[in-house]
Every structure is written in structure tokens, then in C-alpha cells.
Amino acid sequence: MPSSIGFGPASVAALGLTYLLHSLVWTALAALLARRSASVRNLGWKLALFAPIVSTLLATALAPALRSVALPHLPMVGDGHPATARASSVPLIALLAIAIGALRFWYAARVLRRRLRSRAPVHDARLLRRLQRLRMRMGLPPIALSQSAQLASPLVVRAKELCVPASLSSLSDEEIDAVFAHELAHLERGDWFWFPSASLVQSIFWMQPLHAWVGARFRRSAELACDDRAVEVTGDALALARALTQVADRAIGMRVGIRVPAMASSTHLLVERVKRLTEPSPRRVGSMAPVLLALGLVTLGLSLQAHTKAEATVDNAGLQAQMRDLDDRGQALESELGALSHSDDPTSTTAMRRITLESELRHVRAEQAWIEQRLFHAPRS
Fold first, then answer.
1. Which of 192, 277, 353, 375 has the greatest number of beta carbons closer than 10 A?
2. What is the mean pLDDT of residues 76-94?
3. Global confidence as pTM
4. All structural domains of the chain with their residue ranges
């Protein structure tokens, strides 16, 4: 008696073609969300990775019943034909390919597990206090904090554990807050589960040509969404950019095995993230032009009302001292930028450092312009 779902070469080929077609449809739907927020884009790429498996299985399971209703006299493919050695080779090749992918995933997981074996609980009161404060602000359950000398970048280990490199304590308080907020955002989004699951799908179905492209965009959108969440929690985009620059040099060459939520692991993405954090988006500014104009008019009105009172309390000496400090800081930034422009180092760390310095220099010049305006309008003594 013929089975409803066969395992001959025709069935395997049909299953593979169905899976490819479903992946194309889901990928096209995800691509339509390219102009949405990073969180929405990540949801689209997540569906493009996992939904084709479910929809293909459903279509395969329902196909015989639908075919028997629509075309009852059409014989099933392969009915009455015994399997030959040549015919059975196609399913065996497919199973061998899946086994190779599963073996690769197992080996990568073993490498990661070996690297994390030496991790130990963090006892630094400063790190624990800052993590606790951010965790409570984001409404997350207690999180275990560990550290390992084998890691160069913070990463999420499991649902309630964050592992950081031993060098994290060398960062400033603001940079540590940015790092923790980014990693807690991964926990908040459940990326501790989705990242390894995506790696498993890519490993098992490595012969599917779309998976590498979709998987890269899934991880990229997840990192950008966590950057947005970190800035929302801390309110300091520059601190996150500086933290990325600090860990980039050590993290670029890190191989953690399977893909897990790590703060810095891709050269190209790191440069993009630093630029995104330090430079305003023209599209976003353009779309918010009416709101910015209204806020500007309101601010101008309030400034004019408070101008008379402010003139009487301007401390010329303090402003001039602040201007001198800004001049010194600007010269130091220009000097470092000049040294970088003559550097032959083509690494991404140099590029990100240059972007950060240029952003800080713009902030210094803007503050100088504001102080000059205050000094110009201040009453002369």
C-alpha cells in the first residue's frame, strides 16, 4: 500500500523545492520591512529563517489529502515502482548533507562550551551594582554575571547569565552601563535562544542558498535593535560607541563557535554601528522635520522669555575658563585625528576611533559656539 509521504528521490526533490519556494516567499516578505525599525526588521528576518520549515511541513503533510480531493484519479508519484539502489541514493545524499551540518554545529557548540568552562562569578562590586541597577530599570529577573579570560567581548550565555571579559572593569561607568544595557536587551528579546537556533537551521540546511544571506541580516538587525534599546535605557549613544571601539580590537578575531549574542564580532557591522550611533540619520531627521521645527519655535520662545533673567547671572570668568578647556580639548582631538590620518593602519578599530573623535570634536565646537554666543550677549562688567 502506498504511503502518503514517500522517501524516494522524487519526494526528496519535491520537498527541497517546496522548502526553497517557501523560503523565497518569506524572504521577500521580510525584505518588504527593510525601511522599518530594527526590531521590526529582525522579526521579519526571524520569520524568513524559521517559518519556511513550518510551512513546508504543513504543505507536505496536507498535499496528499488535497491532491486526493482535487485529482482523485491521478496516480501518486512512484506508485507501483520498487525503489532501486540508484533511486535511494538521493535521500541518502540529503541525509548525509544534513548530518554533516549537524556535526559542524555540534563541534562549534563544543568549542564554545570549552571556552566558557573557565568562567567564574564576578565579585567586582562596581560591575554588580551597575548591572543590578540597569536590570531593575528594564524589569528583568536576576541575572548571573560571570567573567572569562578566554573572551574578548561580552556575550549572553543562557537565559539568565551574562559573561564578560576580565578587561570590562577598565571601562568608564557610562561605557559599562552601555555594555550592560546592550547585553540585557539581548536577554530581553530572547536572543539567547534565537541566535543558536538560527545557527542550527543554517548548519543543518547549509545547502539552502538563502540561509547565509538571511542569517546575516537577522543577526545585524538584532544588534541594531539592541543598540537602540541600550540608547533608550541609558540615553548616551556616544558611550555605547566608545564601548564598541574599546572592545573591537580584541573581539574582531574572536571565534566563539556557534553564533551567540556577542557585543562585537563583525568588522563591517561594528563600523556601521559606530557611525549609526555618532551620526544623525538624514532620513530620520527629514521625517521629523515638522516636529523639530515646532520644538525649535517653542524653545526659541522660551529662550527669549528667559533671556533677560539669564543676562544678570552670566559668569563671564567661568565661561571663559570653560572656553579655554574646550580649546585644549579641541586641539587634542585635532592632533589625534591628524595622527590617525597619517597612519597606515587599515584596521576597523582605527576607522571607528576616527569616527568617534570626529563626533566628539563636533560636540566640542558646538559647545564653543554656544559659549561664544553667551559671552557676546552677556553684560559687560
1. 277
2. 52
3. 0.68
4. 7-63+91-281, 291-377
Q: Which long-range contacts (CB under 8 A, 24 or more apart) does 203-207 make?
A: 203/101, 203/102, 203/104, 203/105, 203/108, 204/98, 204/101, 204/102, 204/105, 205/19, 205/98, 205/101, 206/97, 206/100, 206/101, 206/104, 207/97
Helices of type H across 190-315: 191-204, 211-234, 237-251, 267-278, 282-287, 289-311
pLDDT band at 183 (very low <50, low <70, confident <90, very high): very high
Match 557610562 to its residue by C-alpha cell: 174
What DSSP assignment string belongs to 82-111?
Answer: ---HHHHHHHHHHHHHHHHHHHHHHHHHHH
pLDDT class for 138, splitting at 50, 70, 90?
A: very high
Between CA 242 and CA 52 the distance in angstroms is 39
- Close Cβ partners of 311 (under 8 Å, ≥ 6 residues apart): 377, 378, 379
> Which tens digits make up the pLDDT trace of 1-19?
344 444 555 666 777 788 8
Q: Give CA torsion, residues 216, 219, 224, 229, to 10 deg.
A: 170
Place of cell 533608550: 232
pLDDT band at residue 375 under the 50/70/90 scheme? low
Identify the CA nearest to 177 among candidates 238, 109, 224: 238
